[in-house]
Structures are given as C-alpha cells and as structure tokens.
Amino acid sequence: MTHVQERAQSSNAAVNAIAGKDGAGSEFLAFTLGQEEYGIDILKVQEIRGYDAVTRIANAPEFVKGVVNLRGIIVPIADMRIKFNLGTPVYDQFTVVIILNISGRVMGMVVDSVSDVTTLTPEQIKPAPEMGAAFNTDYLIGLGTLEERMLILIDIDKLMSSAEMGLIEKLAT
Question: What are the CheW-like domain coordinates in residue numbering (predicted)?
Fold first, then answer.
C-alpha cells in the first residue's frame, strides 16, 4: 500500500470515527487562525478562556507560550498560530485559549477567536486532500462543509499526542 493510500484510509477511518456511524453527526468547536476556520471535536473541550499572561519555560519550543495555573493544575499553553506557521500572532481582546482534555491530560491552545459550535453530518465531512511532503496533513481529519463555510477539521488527539507536543507535558511537570 502506498503512502497516499495509507493516508486516505487513515483519513476515512478518522472521518467515520468522528462523524459517528449512526449518521446523526458530530459537534465541532469552530475557531479561527489567521484567515482560516478550523474545527475540533467539542467533546475534547473543557473550557474556553480569555488569553492571560503565561509563565515562560526556558528552552521550550517557540510555539509553547508557557504554562498557567488553572485551579491548581499546571496547564501548558501552545500557540497554534506559531505551530502552524501562520505569521506573527497578535494578542488582543478576541484571542482565546481553548482548554482541552486529551486522554486525561489538560492543555491549552491559543487561537485568534472562537465562533460557534457546528454540527456536521458524515456527508458534510470530506477527507483531507493529499498535499505532498511540503504540507503535513497527518493532523487533519478532513474538511467540513456547511453552506458557504469550510472548516479544516483537526484531529486534536493526534496533534496533541505528537512527539513535540509530548515535550510540553514534560515542561509542565
């Protein structure tokens, strides 16, 4: 099996798992990074907060803004604009931190803004296109289409459990 076939099979499995076999659809939290709109599984979201100052960690990757103390839990904060190389981030009144609970690990991700919760049926989710080696699509579930909107659906479990994100957890302890 070629890499493209493996990727397509993996993407289809992710679409089916997220969208649900019963056809009822799944809910995604829609947020923006730069000019694009993204979506993550709402069940992974613990809370949404305004962006506050973070405590920087020495020798952390650039996309790791630092850590915050959230009701006694040290939570690492990653800036997705830096992670996805979307230009210089600007922190303003719309900037938010999405607190995620991924396999029992609490972490936060900084995004430009959060718009709404969108329900997508399996028919509205298309597999992510193969972009070649220049663009890593491993963290994408697919593209969600809703009228004129298109959400880039992120497999937040896969993204947050990647090797470099594992560094965040080590830094926070």
Answer: 25-165
The DSSP annotation for the chain comes to --HHHHHHHHHHHHHHHHH-TTS--EEEEEEEETTEEEEEEGGGEEEEEE----B--TT--TTEEEEEEETTEEEEEEEHHHHTT-S-----TT-EEEEEEETTEEEEEEESEEEEEEEE-GGGEEEPPP--TTS--TTEEEEEEETTEEEEEE-HHHHHTSHHHHHHHHHH-
Tokens found for residue 84: 């996805």
Global pTM reads 0.79
* pLDDT-derived band at 88, boundaries 50, 70, 90: confident
pLDDT tens-digit map of 12-69: 444 444 444 445 789 999 999 988 999 999 999 999 999 988 999 888 888 899 999 9
| Burial grade of 27 (CB within 10 A; 0-12, 13-18, 19 or more) | middle
Output the CA torsion sign for 50, 100, 43, 110.
positive
The number of distinct structural domains making up the chain is 1
Distance CA 172, CA 170 (A): 5
**Cα–Cα distance measured from residue 79 to residue 66, given in angstroms and rounded to the nearest whole number:** 9
The enclosing domain of 29 has a CATH number of 2.40.50.180
- Amino acid 55 reads T
